[in-house]
Design goal:
The structure holds two protein chains of two kinds. By secondary structure, chain A is an all-alpha fold. Chain A has 13 helices and no strands. Chain A folds into two domains: 89 residues, no CATH class; 193 residues, MetI-like (MetI-like fold). In chain A, α5 packs across α8 and α10 packs antiparallel against α13. The longest helix of chain A has 36 residues. The mean pLDDT of chain A is 90. By secondary structure, chain B is an alpha+beta fold. Chain B is built from 16 helices and 19 strands. The N terminus of chain B is likely disordered.
Amino acid sequence: MLTYTLKRLLLTIPTLIGVAVLVFFMLRIVPGDIVEVKLRGDGGNVTQEVVDAERKRLGLDRPLLVQFGDYMWGLARGDLGISMWTERPVIEEILIRLELSLEVAILATIFATLISIPLGTAAALFRNTWIDYVVRIVTIGGLSIPSFWFGMIIIVSLLTLFNWLPPITFTPIYVDPVANLSQLIWPALAVGYRYCAVTARMIRSSLLEVLAEDYIRTARAKGVYEKLVVSRHALRNALLPAITVMGLEFAFLIGGLVVTEQVFNLNGIGQLFVQSVSRNDFMLIQGMVIMIAGFYVIINLVVDLLYAVFDPRIRYGN
Amino acid sequence: MKKLILGLVGVVAFTLAAGPQAEAQQPKRGGNFNFAISAETPHYDCHASDTYATLHFSSPFHSTLLRYNLSKFPDVEGDLAKSWTISPDKLTYTFTLHEGVKFHNGETFTSADIKATYDRLRSPPQGVVSTRRATFADIESIETPNPTTVVFKLKAVNSSMMDHFASPWNCVYSAKDLAADPTSPRTKINGTGPFTFVEHVKGSHVSGKRNENYFKKGLPYLDSYRGIFTLQAAAMLNALQGGQVLAEFRGVSPAERDRMVAAMGDKLRVEESSWTLNLLVLFNTEKPPFNDIRVRRALLMAIDRWGGSQGLSKISTLRAVGGVVRPGSPLATPEAELVKLPGFSKNIKQAREEARKLLKEAGHENLKFVLWNRNLAMPYTPAGVFLVDQWRQIGVEVEHKQSDTAPYIAAMQSGNFEVAIDFSNLFNDDPTLSMTKFISASKNPLNLSRANDAEIDKLYELQLREGDIQKRKQYIQALEKRLFEQAYQQPILWWHRIVLSHRTVMGWKMSPSHNLGADLAEVWLNQ
């Protein structure tokens, strides 16, 4: 298992290098110049001389290959470079927002897990009864309603019913847990609903499939209690595809909550992504793409390792 | 709807009636003021910026030499300058400075700081960006005969000089700081303004607390403030309604105002003014058929600005019809003269008939082209849709292409466009800055129409060097006439500013520019 994990971790290096090379050159094809946006984007009457001087100061006048070499050398040393918009280290820009985005993702995952497993299981066990129908309606709702719209409904409801809104500035959980949760629980709920719906449907269909397997029939024939059949034999196997979905959803939540973050005025990675794209801040975009790619790789690894926990037949490294 | 309109009328009427009385109340000291800033500055350096995002962030920390008196806009008043004199030949400006002014780090402010600041603005050292370098090109020398006197000598008369001195972006920095590191204002804050810097949490907020040593005694009234970045209008409005922010000072659209009036009633203060911003339509004069004056002129003549103003003002921030100077301001062309210029006729039927004739003469009766526009909902989208519809009415087919700022600017700079919507972001009514866009492209690459016109260059220079206001006005109007007759570019409509705040916010002054009055020194909370 340890060798397998190390191998997988080492494989992330060429993956991330590939991502870095691809993103670096693809971004250079996109039309637009951050210096122009910075100096003239708000109608500034700046001279070409000033624009050229700023381009030189940021090193954008150097040949592309020299810029690429510098970037890759920095990457090799763990340096993601400097944001061309704020001129602060990219890693600093990301880390400020990452705490919030991670917390929303974790809260949404907790919410989705706590709700989806019993919901999906109940729907499968009581197939084609009113319980199943209710679960199906609720989950189809979750899949159909965009998270940002649900977020808007939450905000409007809070404003209308209680004349209250969640805080709009972030307080870390270790500083003030109440302020922190009263801000983040709502976006977590908004995105968690969809997350929960996807997972619950996956668990339902997977569990229905597993319940029809021979080994379940055998277990029942041997007189094993139904609760044990479901919890020990069926659910553990049925959870495997659900874990994959949950892993992918979690990784998506790190950088994909663009509109939801805007609705709740959250200073997260999604919002930063949109801003840096609209400004052509190549360094920041590259840094975020690499970070998100890294998250996907690591979460996939965690999911693969969790397979072994839920299914003892899976043994990596043998 | 009726309820909404009545509510709106009531609130505006209440504002107008109660405003002066409310302002006359004795200001109360104390309190923390949360307000929204709808964009975040990339850095703290006012000299390198042209965006209000920097001003709404930095102004409370800094002072300027002069500033606008917002109660009598566009009059100028002293900020760090106590008084000043201008020599009869208008080539020497002598400023007497306030004494006993301290920077936030405790250093004493002197005339050397003004000199260092303006030297940085007009001749930035290596690694420093000054977007106002050209603005101060007429300064020949800056002398500091004593710590409270600073003398600016000009190479030539510059009729816009006082406005340039009052620019809110001329934050005064410490000479010592600049000597140690001329780039320090990008990342460090050390001013003489009413508030001292507390923190800037990237993407979240900036906060400041009262400068107890502020040189204007008794000010500021607030203990502290927090400027919260709310990049989405909907989030800002929700926060305003929920009381998490008490104001936003850039401006909102009429629809947003109406929503808030309906939701908040008399808790809300609505202040409105004309705005020193306009959208322009411009033609790439190097691209056929827009190198043909008849085609350009026909397209301008087809635009019903007067009718459009009525419709667009209900759904967007666009409102006033005007030329190159803000309508209603001292140097603006009066309406009676404006209607004689191409594109401003009130007889739109006749104007469109002439436009069709011009297109026929030019051989472009079935003209098709792409209109470039920025991908910003307010007011760019309604302006674009409006133009497409106006041109459709003379048989012209237009594709409306909206793009993000970066590719839009790239297309403008490279000349890879036919017709575009451009914008003027001004902080005053002095036309020199706005008319820079019209100087020949060979002299100024900012002329996106890429036109070269010696007559316009001559008139621009004449108005700049003219000390007599009436003569200057004549030059400005002559330039405007030439510009519109040649149809290189033309304002579509001027913007209308609507600012919302809770009634508890007092002392803030409305002005035609969102770049002014952001220092919060006189703001207080009536709680």
